[in-house]
Amino acid sequence: xxxxxxxxxxxxxxxxxxxxxxxxxxxxxxxxxxxxxxxxxxxxxxxxxxxxxxxxxxxxxxxxxxxxxxxxxxxxxxxxxxxxxxxxxxxxxxxxxxxxxxxxxxxxxxxxxxxxxxxxxxxxxxxxxxxxxxxxxxxxxxxxxxxxxxxxxxxxxxxxxxxxxxxxxxxxxxxxxxxxxxxxxxxxxxxxxxxxxxxxxxxxxxxxxxxxxxxxxxxxxxxxxxxxxxxxxxxxxxxxxxxxxxxxxxxxxxxxxxxxxxxxxxxxxxxxxxxxxxxxxxxxxxxxxxxxxxxxxxxxxxxxxxxxxxxxxxxxxxxxxxxxxxxxxxxxxxxxxxxxxxxxxxxxxx
Length: 350
Prior knowledge:
This protein is α/β, with parallel strands linked by helices. The protein is built from 12 helices and 14 strands. The strands form 5 sheets. Strands 1, 4, 5, 6, 11 and 14 form a 6-stranded parallel β-sheet that branches. It has a two-stranded parallel ribbon with strand order 2-3. A two-stranded antiparallel sheet has the order 7-10.
């Protein structure tokens, strides 16, 4: 006599759903810096020890693929269960000094999207420089006047002009997307970030020159924030575990650029990287990467430039029918191994 257990059908259905979460789909992860820093307003840093824990999770529980492998499989076959791709944006020097040795230890491939015009540069990325000028301990003038795009702006720092070490340490976990702003310095940082974000590179650079003069600061590049040199790019690509992709010339918001400017940013970056590396560069990542940061015209230009795929920065899984020129990615923060495992598992059911 067959005995039926009440609810067993529901349990089996749930088990099939859990198994199906990881079947024939992949998740692409986005990193920026592998370093420990004093302040990290956009959560772009993962400490080396946490990155090692994260890679251990990927090697143990997932199926790491290169981006090139994933895009090939999307055209020719089924995506392996629990497939995960690791990518980096921008081209910080610690991608070589800290990330590559750990990727080699765990034998996990990665793609590093380089801002070609920043390679070998002696200045920090523009929002890193904002952080250095405004969110580090020290004294600034109490007022700031700036002219941007024909408009005048005025800010009052008041007591926040004087910023002590203990206050800096107290607020080092602040994130720029949070509603709370601990002091007027953080209000100023967020205001300037929003104003500078859509500007052309030349205008942003001039504004930062004005801000450095106002702050009495030197144009230095912190070791944790500097870009790769040309020799370091070659060393990063050596061995074949790490693929180099393009991230434009100057990291603009492409949707704020004319079609001609977009084409220049995209095609010139590809040409410069290919000349430096001596082989084709076939992958691209849209700067900032949200749907508002590029357009259908941008996608067409990337395709026409000869790239095989392009990565964005909105959440989602990759399936065979996913547009290879709008691949979703998840931003990874400074998670320990256990929290990282939870976050990656959630990515597959996004």
